[in-house]
Amino acid sequence: MELSRRRLLGTVGAAGAAGLVVGGAGGAIGASASQEDTPKALTTLGSTEVPFRAARARHQAGITTPLQANGHLAAFDLAPGADRKAAAALLRRWSRTAEELMAGRAPDADTGIALDAGPSSLTVTFGFGHSFFGRTGLAKRRPVQLDPLPDFSADALDPGRSNGDLWIQIGADDALVAFHALRALQKDAAGSARLRWQMNGFNRTPGATTHPMTARNLMGQVDGTNNPKPSDEDFDQRIFVGRDTEQQWMRGGSYAVVRRIRMLLDDWEKRSRHEQERVIGRRKDNGAPLTGGSETTPMRLDANGPDGLPVIPANAHARIAAPESNQGAAMLRRPFSFHDGYREDGAPDAGLLFVCWQADPLRAFTQIQRKLDRGDALSPFLRHEASGLFAVPPAAEPGDYVGRPLLEG
Ligand SMILES: C=CC1=C(C)c2cc3[nH]c(cc4nc(cc5[nH]c(cc1n2)c(C)c5CCC(=O)O)C(CCC(=O)O)=C4C)c(C)c3C=C
Ligand SMILES: [Fe+2]
């Protein structure tokens, strides 16, 4: 089976370069598994590889990488007695495993879960939580940006599903590839760290729509339209830590805020489409602002209707969260939807694993969430149930592991 996977992967480069698409993913994989002697090229979905360390980018994969269809978020706490040296050894193991898996190679003593599949845009991203620094004797190297987030009035946070010493974000366009990575990394942690919490998410599968589109969330809204774009002049400055940071090990890194936000879908779905659109300030069908145009047309926040009232209501989510309402603050939102079955009252336990990226959480997430907390029309339909804040260092240098400048610097 190992030989088969390697032979398959050997065809990836040629297939990918030629943009060859071999039917659906299931078809290609099914055929290869049953006909070991005649390996076929992987689909482009399966063969797409995201480099563990990009040649020019300093940041880890999984921040500006396009959203994948499957995601796992996991937080670990160091085991009692595990010190800085043990943490360094764990990050070394994790980095090696992540690099192998992202290249579509099986790690040692593999479970076989992802056999036959290519890398499928797998990304693995590592971060450090506030508590990590005290436990490893590195309190002096803890960035102020990791100071705990303030309490918000609508918070109903579960501490057991919040924060943690170490955080991993996994994304892949194949569910087995994503789970395989989660298992491999969890096994690597044995003896050094134990799982604190773990959450599973999903997004639309690439190829499900006629052309690439902004994702929809479980409320049915086009979500992600007004994200900062890598082509924006101030993108790097907003999302990645700059050279003037006190903690040089974070230069080129970013801060991730993670929130498990349950949606009160029974209440939401009772509202008319017109009401739902006024809650956000954008149309549901194409994501265009209520002031007209297409999805990418800027909102006209100063436009009034014939009744003299703002066309985009004063409490519309997109208005309150916009940089214009927040002294220019912006973040890169990169969420996964979640559905964890049904609650006792029959309501879906579903919503958004909200993950956002910024150079400074105080000036981005906290600034905006404070504003939303005071009068966002969307808030009555949401419950913030878990929260985390993590320092995500830059990518490892070749031959190195993520976080070495912190752990050995
Ligand atoms: C603190 C930050 C934010 C939280 C928490 C949040 C939750 C949340 N948002 C939606 C749905 C939409 N959000 C949209 C825009 C938008 N949201 C935030 C911030 C938070 N959202 C920002 C900064 C923006 C961009 C504002 C702008 O510049 O225009 C939109 C509109 C489309 C878009 O631009 O993405 C939707 C829809 C949900 C469902 C949710 C919690 C579950
Ligand atoms: Fe939002």
List keywords for this structure.
single chain, 409 residues, alpha+beta, 2 domains, nine-stranded antiparallel β-sheet, 13 helices, 9 strands, 27% helix, 18% strand, binds the ligand C=CC1=C(C)c2cc3[nH]c(cc4nc(cc5[nH]c(cc1n2)c(C)c5CCC(=O)O)C(CCC(=O)O)=C4C)c(C)c3C=C, binds fe (ii) ion
How much of the sequence lies in strands comes to 15-25%
The stretches of 5 or more residues where confidence is low (pLDDT under 50) are: 1-33
Biggest sheet features: 9 strands, antiparallel
Ions, cofactors and other ligands present here are:
ligand L6N33NVT, fe (ii) ion
Number of separate helices: 13
Large-scale geometry: globular
User: Roughly how many Å apart are the termini?
Assistant: 42 Å
Mean pLDDT score: 91
Order of helices and strands: HHHHEHEHEHEHEHHHEEEHEH
Could you say how many structural domains there are in total? 2
Question: Structural class of the helix and strand makeup?
Answer: alpha+beta
Q: What level of helicity do the residues show? A: 25-40%
Q: Rg, please?
A: 22 Å
Q: Give the total of beta strands.
A: 9
